[in-house]
Amino acid sequence: MNISNVIRGVKQMAPLLRKELLEAWRDRRALVMAVCFSLMFPAALAGGTIFMIKKQSEDVTRVALLGAERAPLIQQRLRSPNLEVSSLDSGSPRELLAGDYDIVLEFGEDFAQRYQAFRAPPLYLYINSSDTGSGRAQRDIQERLGALQQLVVTQRLAARGVAPRLLAPWRIETRDVSTPSSRGALILATVPGLLIMTLFVACLATAVDTSAGERERLSLEPLLLQPMAGWQIITAKTIAVASLGWLGSLLAIATLLLLMPVMPLTELGIQRATTTGGVIAMGLIMLPLALLVAVLQILLALRSQSFKDAQTQLSIFQIAPLVVLMALDIAQIKLSDSWQLLPLVGHQQWLKGLLVGGAVSPVWMIAGSLVTLGLVLAAVMVGARALRREGLLSAS
Amino acid sequence: MIRVDKICKSFEGQQVLHNLSFDVPDGRITALLGANGAGKTSCLRIVCGLLQADSGRVLVGDADPASDPMAVRRQLGVVGDREGLYERLTVREYLSVFARMQGLSGAALQEALQAVREELELDALWDRRTKGFSQGERMKVSLARALVHRPRHLILDEPTRGLDVLAVRLLRKTLLRLRAAGTTILFSSHVMPEVAELSDRVLVMAAGKIVGAGTPEQLATETGCTNLEDSFVALAYGQRPAVAQTQGEPA
C-alpha cells in the first residue's frame, strides 16, 4: 500500500467517518458518561483536598480533666492550640468519652501529696479505642505530657546540681528536605492514573455501541457490503470512539486546572508549577493513547458474544492496566527511561511530570507517542482481519 | 447476470451447501424458494461476498466476490434479513452516507437521493431519525439504501417478512419497475404467493441444493401440480399429491 493509495483511502473513508462521528456524538448516554466522569474526578480530588486541609486545621483534641485542682501546673501547661482542656468537678470517664471529649485525664486524690513526696503519682488516661480519633488524641496528649515530664525532671536534676544533658545521650531533630514539587508529585500521584482511566471510561460506551452494538442490531452487515476496506471501517470507528475519549481527558485536565486555584495546595506544600506548554503537551500525549484505547476496546468488543458480554469484558479491561500502573506507583519502582516507550507507563510518567512542573523529556514523549501510534496501526490491521470473521454475522 | 457454480459451504463440519449451481439472468426477477434452513441466506451471503465458499465459484457481472469483493459491492444492492438501521441518523443522513460510500457526490448525489425519496415515498420520513420506525418504514429505508447508487444487481433476503399490505405492495411495485429498467433481481422467500406473483423464474432449494428451476408454470408441469406450493413440496420433500398420482391430473 503506497502513500497515494492511503490518501485516497482516507478520502473514501470520509462519509463513513461522518456517520461514525454523528452516531457517537448523538449517543446521549455515552456523552453523559464521558462528561460526568471527566468532571467528577477533578471535583472529587478538589473536594477531598479541601476537606483534608479543613480537617487538619480544625481538628482539636478535647481533653477533660478530673481533679485538676490537685495538679494546677499540668492544667496550665497542658493548654495548647490543638488541645482544648476543660476542668470538671466530677463525671464518669465513660460518659465523658461518649459525649464531647476525646480523652479524659484523671488525677488521683493523693496526687499532690505523692507528687510533692517524689513518689510518682499515677495519672489515669481514659480513651475509647473504638473511636477513630482516639489514636490521634492519645498521641497529642502523650506528647504534651512527655514534654512536661521532661521539664520537671530537668528542673529537679538542676536543683540537685546534676546536669540534665547526662540523661540525654542524644537529641533528635527532624528536618523535612522534600521540595514543593516532590511533595506535589506524591499527593498528585493518583491524577495520571485517573486521567488515563477517564479515557477508558469515556471511550467505553461508544466502543461497545459501534461494534458489539451494531452487530447485535444487525446494522454491521450493510456496512460490510459497501466498497470499503476493513481498515477503513475500523479506522473510522476508532477515530469516532477516540474523539469522545480525548474530549473526556481534555475536559478532565481543564477542570483540574480550573479547580487548582481553589484547592489549598500551598497548605499541602504543593507549588503550582503546571505551565501552558505543559497543559498543551498533556492534551497532545493523550491523543495517541485515546486512539490506542479506542481500537483495543473495539477489537475486544468485536470478539465478544453479545452487547452485555462486551460491556463486561471492557469493564475488566479498563481496570487491569490501571491496577498495574498503581502497583508500579505504590511500589515506587524506579524505571529506566526506556520504559517510557511503553504506552500507559510512559503516559503516567509524563503526566505526573507535567502536572508538577517536573522535567519531562520531549524526545521520550515523541518516541513513546510514535510507538503508541505504531501499535494503533497494528491493531487496526488486526481489526480489519476480524471483520472478515464469519462469526461476526452469527447474530443474524 | 449472477452465476453460482458448484459452491459448497460447511459450518463447523456441517455441510449446508452441496455443489450449488444456478444462473440469475439479467433484467429478470429470480426467486430462491426454500424452507427455513435450506441454505438460502448462506447462499446469498456468499454471492454478496460476506461469506467465502469452501469450493466453487461465483460471478456477479464479471467480478468474483472472493477475489474482487470491491467490484462486486459497487454493482450490488442488498437488503438483508431483519437488518438494522442507524437509529441516530435521519433518513436523509443515512442514505447520504451510503450513497457517498458508493462514490456519489455533488449533483449526482442529490439526484440519487431525490429519486429514492420519490420512488419509495419517503417524504414523511426524510428528516426523521430512524429510531422507532415500523417494520414497513425500516424496509423502505433499507430498500432505498440498497437502490440509491442504482446497482445493476439487487439481492433481497426475505424482503416481505413482517411487512403490512401497503409495504408489500410498494415493494412489489418497486421490484417490477426495477425489472423494467433492466436490474437483475434475486430474492429469497418462503412465501409462495409472493414468489408466484413476482418472479420470472423460481429456484427451489432444499438441503443446500437446487432441486428445481423454471417458471412457476414450468415447475407445475414438471411436478404435475396446479400451484407453486404443491410444486415446491413435491420438489423439496418428494411428496407428490396423492390424488394427482392416482388420477393423473394436477392436484
CATH fold-level topology of chain B: Rossmann fold
Number of domains of chain A: 2
Mean pLDDT of chain A: 85
Low-confidence stretches of chain A: none
Sheet/helix structural class of chain A: mainly alpha
Question: Which radius of gyration of chain A do the C-alpha atoms yield?
Answer: 31 Å
In the CATH scheme, the class of chain B would be Alpha Beta
Number of strands of chain B: 9
Quaternary class: heterodimer
- Total DSSP helices of chain A: 15
Percent of residues in β-strands of chain B: 15-25%
Helix content of chain B: 25-40%
Tell me the number of structural domains of chain B: 1
Query: What is the CA-CA span between the terminal residues of chain A?
Result: 33 Å
Q: Order of strands across the biggest sheet of chain B?
A: 5-6-7-3-8-9
Order of helices and strands of chain A: HHHEHEHEHEHHHHHHHHH
Strand count, sense and closure of the main sheet of chain B? 6 strands, mixed
Protein described:
Chain A has helices at 3-12, 14-25, 28-58, 72-78, 93-98, 111-116, 134-159, 180-187, 190-216, 220-224, 230-259, 276-303, 307-331, 345-355, 362-386, and strands at residues 61-66, 83-88, 103-107, 123-126. Chain A is mainly alpha-helical and 396 residues long. Chain A folds into 2 domains: 3-53 and 181-395, no CATH class; 59-174, abc type-2 transporter like fold, CATH 3.40.1710. In chain A, strands 2-1-3-4 form a 4-stranded mixed beta sheet. In chain A, α4 links the parallel β1 (61-66) and β2 (83-88). In chain A, α9 crosses α14 (345-355), α12 (276-303) packs across α13 (307-331) and α12 runs parallel beside α15 (362-386). Chain B is of the alpha/beta class and 251 residues long. Helix content of chain B is 40%, strand content 24%. In chain B, α5 packs parallel to α6 (165-180) and α8 packs across α9 (228-237). Chain B is globular and about 55 Å long. Residues 243-251 of chain B have low confidence and may be disordered.
